[in-house]
């Protein structure tokens, strides 16, 4: 038996979480270093997986398969396709930066207010904070790797719990309110996050049960294995009635739309991101939410292709509303973190638009978008977090003229912001462009409307920069220190990556595209016939295996 | 009353020779779990009568633990001897069934009771009074609360060691209840386990008036429901001419054509069957705590001593659902087109009612009471499935649920202030800061109640929902999912309270328990996680045990 690489990738952060939690209360620094080391080890493992993944190989690679709960037809089945392996790598890449950026976040909880010293010794926020982050990482990685619907569901749901404690337990104390009011707002945000996602998950549970019943009827024994279901469907032994398929699709999609989040199910995100610390906000939007869009690609489209096509018009309209609504509300925000949250809603609209446009550019662009949005939001949000922790306020109006005092901070903030508004040359531009092209080739009207989102993005990012960084230096901002070494270590690699992927996205695109083509073949959609055959060569010199397109040199 | 005699049977029997009455044939080996527990209970009474007071506690604890463990071993031996599957049959002249479901439920009840004994015996939580370690039970239950006699009893250091034999009697009744194979045995078993529980509820050391009130409420409503059950049994006898399960089932199925002449007016009358069946169901649904027969649950759960509440919530539910399953699947399967719609309604009401009302609760014990009502609704969804998976999923759910409940109530006994247990939810604020371990353990139990994956609650919920969906009760699954979402809200609220709220200055402290309560809680956590992560073995066990004997 070969080395279970995927299991190890998920197990290392889980072990790291336990190890971090077990560090004695007094040795806070040791806990931080433990967490960082384990997250780096995970990064190494995911890099190995990325290298060993063969883009031209089978659909699922590095697979592992064991019986788990036979009565429920549940198998411990792992496997990654191009999309999964890239997202695992993204997760593993971001976590060390999140840990590093959050280095001092739990410190302010270390002296419990009003508690006796014995209670203080047992209450270990530092250990808890980093252990929870690693726990979330382990669960997210598992859900990217699971090829068994039930296994996926378990981690999809279970990750809510550590996430919930991260949101509710650790704030940045920068809301401009008394600690009591801030704690209330925080636990409100945490509960809202949990309830929204739990309701989504429970509705998905009903659909999961339904899937079991359907497979049990046709195959004799219920199964959740994606591969088995796909095989049975293509062999014709499994047929799902149209109405049933649509209901099941809706059950799954609802959960993913809450997680992604899609308008009108998005309202938990601004609160959760606003009240939590910046690294946790990055964890939510750049890592956890990706599971939602990823699951749409892997589960909604592949399990229920017919129903996906049936629901496409409505979903596309909702996605476009998300894009415009998120961007418009972002323009009006007074709070930096909430602004970024609404910007994320807009970006998730783009991702979902790309997925359901059902063209290879659209879906390939959407997958790239997941990666790029993760990196660009992380850069912007983490720098915003550094900014907020310096001033102790999240309000845009409290800043002004920062670029004169802390030029490096302002510069990195600008790069993150420009990436968010998809400036050409930075990574998100390519993905956004592909999504729009992919949408336009099939739904021109929606493509046009969605483009307005880019204009609005320029508005909210540049206005944010103008109000906080330029203008006269405000009194409270004076003397603000520039980025420290630790903070530079967080920001520099992210910006380098944004520029690199902006200029040369081929490495990621090459891995992702075969998987996207496979998904499209399942939904039985072909790209619309091009007006000019020469463009059929694909983009970035990629074309599907065995398909010698004219004009494309492989 | 197995065969219908001829017209002249009445005087023929009267004139018959006396020695024709057969000696009852009792399979002692197969009934040994029940016999061991009953014997131990009697022994416990002798201990109470003859041993000096200071030796009783150790002796009672020893007798209880050893007998429950021995009875459990007997259940295992019977199961290993294939009495659960191929050799399943009806013992004790048709009174008791020895089959898979019975053995599975008996094993569960015995394990639960064993853990419950640990919480009963805990003597380190209350501060010492007059140099004596005391437990959760009144010094002298017969004394008037706050009176001189009570004060004298407390000063003398009396403790109520009679709770152990009472517990054992209740366990004996519960062992028979799901195995009863005729309606009279069912009724006797019900009374045998109910009466000790009524008394146990009244024995709290603190808040004695509340405790006594809860006992009276439980007794009155319980007696009322027993009356329903008994009346239903009488009507069913009128309908079938017999009280054995298989006999009634045969008449329901129309396999008996001969009519008992004494019952010529009534036999086969569907009105009697429907009314009688409904009344028996009412009696059982009362014990299960299903809406609209749930009114007693919150008051009794709140007033009873917390160890008793935990025992009652876990073990009674197992026994009562076992009896309900057997009645519906063995006696009334022919009638399922009549009872299924009714139970659909009851299940929906129970799930939603329990979950919605729980939101407004401000007391931990009442909150858990309403949550137990909601869970009864989930289990009913599995009962309604009427397939093999229905039985095994309910068995699994009961095993999973009972340990979570027991553990949760054991944690409640730890959180105390000057007035005893601090069950007011507002007092739990900030518990996570003061004692993270206890709060984390309670959070695990709450998450299991809420059905979060990787806990036993999720595996159980999935099993019953799967069975219900297969049995054609898809809408019930959707309602169940919605109720779960509502229920999740109040479980989460408690977690918020414990972890995210600032502790109050005069908040409760967490008592350091002895090894007894620690092990009870530890077992609860272990079972919760094991059944959540690796439930396969237990699911196999439950599905092997999923066939009733008739």
TrEMBL record, chain A:
It is found in: Endomembrane system; Membrane. One of its GO terms (biological process) is electron transport coupled proton transport. Keywords: Membrane, Oxidoreductase, Transmembrane, Transmembrane helix. Residues 524-534, 544-554 have a biased composition (Basic and acidic residues). One of its GO terms (molecular function) is NADH dehydrogenase (ubiquinone) activity. Residues 524-554 are annotated as: Disordered. It holds the Pfam family Proton_antipo_M. Residues 146-456 form the NADH:quinone oxidoreductase/Mrp antiporter transmembrane domain. Its EC number is 1.6.5.11. The keyword Oxidoreductase applies. It is a multi-pass membrane protein. It comes from the Bacteria. InterPro entries: NADH_Q_OxRdtase_chainM/4 (IPR010227), NADH_UbQ_OxRdtase (IPR003918), ND/Mrp_TM (IPR001750). The chain crosses the membrane at residues 31-51, 78-103, 129-156, 193-214, 247-268, 280-304, 310-332, 339-358, 370-388, 408-431, 443-465, 485-504. This is NADH-quinone oxidoreductase subunit M.
